[in-house]
Amino acid sequence: MPQITVDYSASLDEDFDRRGFALALHPLVVETVDARLAACKTRTRRAEETVIGDDAADDALVHVGIHLLTGRGDEAKARLTEAVIALVPEYVKPAEGRVLHVSAEVHDLDPSYRLR
């Protein structure tokens, strides 16, 4: 039941292949934490405003949050986080002067989670 949310800076609208990233991310999640491909769900959210540091540079942010059913160990979650961080730049076109900040986190879904 991976529920995946990708937040990204508005400045990446034309430079971030969000669909391509999701389609590459799903098999990575399956391999790393033993999920089912058909269960992977990703939604992207454009952040209208992103302020990083003193806002002096042309920085951009991609943050990936992954929520899984319980049962995965901390090591598997850490491997997935590192793999996600490595994958993101492959789907963002480089731009002169831009610094891309990438972060990721993996959490267990709340026990109240239900799916229909």
From TrEMBL:
UniProt superkingdom: Bacteria
Protein name: 5-carboxymethyl-2-hydroxymuconate Delta-isomerase
TM segment ranges: none
Alphabetical list of PANTHER family matching this protein: 4-HYDROXYPHENYLACETATE CATABOLISM PROTEIN (PTHR37950:SF1)
